[in-house]
Design brief:
The chain has about 400 residues and is of the alpha/beta class. The chain has 13 helices and 16 strands. The chain has a 7-stranded parallel sheet, sandwiched between helices. A 5-stranded parallel sheet has the order 2-1-3-4-5. The N terminus is likely disordered. Catalyzes the reversible oxidation of 3-phospho-D-glycerate to 3-phosphonooxypyruvate, the first step of the phosphorylated L-serine biosynthesis pathway. Also catalyzes the reversible oxidation of 2-hydroxyglutarate to 2-oxoglutarate.
Length: about 400
Amino acid sequence: MSAPDLTPARTGRALLLENIHADARTLLSEAGWEVETASGALDESELLERLPGVSLLGIRSQTQVSAKVLENAPDLRAVGAFCIGTNQIDLFAAAANGVAVFNAPYSNTRSVVELALAEIIALTRRLTVKDQAMHAGVWDKSAAGSHEVRGRRLGIIGYGNIGSQLSVVAEALGMSVFFYDRTDKLALGNARRCGSLHEVLEIADVVTLHVDGRQSNSGFFGEEEFARMRPGSIFLNLSRGFVVDHEALARHVRSGHIAGAAIDVFPTEPKGSGHGFDSELRGLPNVILTPHVGGSTEEAQEDIGRFVAAKLRDYALYGATTLSVNLPALGTETTPGTVRLAHLHRNVPGVLAAINSVLAEAGVNIEGQQLATRGDLGYVVTDIAAPAADEVGRRLRELPETVRVRQLS
């Protein structure tokens, strides 16, 4: 539990890692933050060393923000994941320490979809094999093993933002789309929902994974699933590296059972560009390996940079938690000419009354108030006419349900 006084801190230091787009730095700098950047990821010990005095942290997929990091970073107010996934952040520990977490759930969807589609076409036409032969000086003008994607059956595992958009685009190219998701999802266009993963695998000519990073998905796709795929089918994974058994995939590619594969994510990935990389899949025929660049287009990274940085700014300045992945959602609406108290607490009966009692006893008039809850957490923002005294902050912090209190001028 953090316990700062109620001295307003509108700005401070921000640390942006892993080559986050320059627009994020510009936006935060213009809002008053002193922004530090680093091109690569930081490990736990490096984070612990760098985070004192840092109020806003920006990462991508490689930096792991553990419970130990969060519990030893009392100045940290918010973490921005400048990507889709947040499995690299301990969300429970973040909430317990009053740290908001934001991501970019939509900004790079199109970039991932376009890469998947390009790889589906390239693998189905065996362009990688033709390309390698030409570079080796071999002219192999043959249609053997090369197919149109029109009329072929695409199996999408995970029908979220990316999977559903891929469904629409693939159907426009004439593919028949089948999908499986553990939760009920509305089928778009003529896509057909399958009742099980195995049903998709036995139907599809192309299987592509778009599942999330929850730990229960670890090892989700392995020997049994590859064996159930149709002979000569194609496999793609642009989701999370740890969901696929790469040794099993390599065996099925070598045997010819899987005719081609495209992998953008790996169980262990280098911390930054230029570092060494190894995989069981290197050197295999008709296999495309890319360095986790599904969302790495200039357009997507620019949009992500602006989107997540704006979320961090609005939380720090106004207490806004819209689209936070771990805190109750409240918007940026403020009462003009007021000071805002933001109180994050455990969601039990009577907390709002206790907060208002503290304010009333101190003679603080409430100009506006909003409350939201999410699971075990409650979040109250209270607009008051003038800054509250430190005594008010002390009493609010001493409420047994309090997680974090901030005053935003």
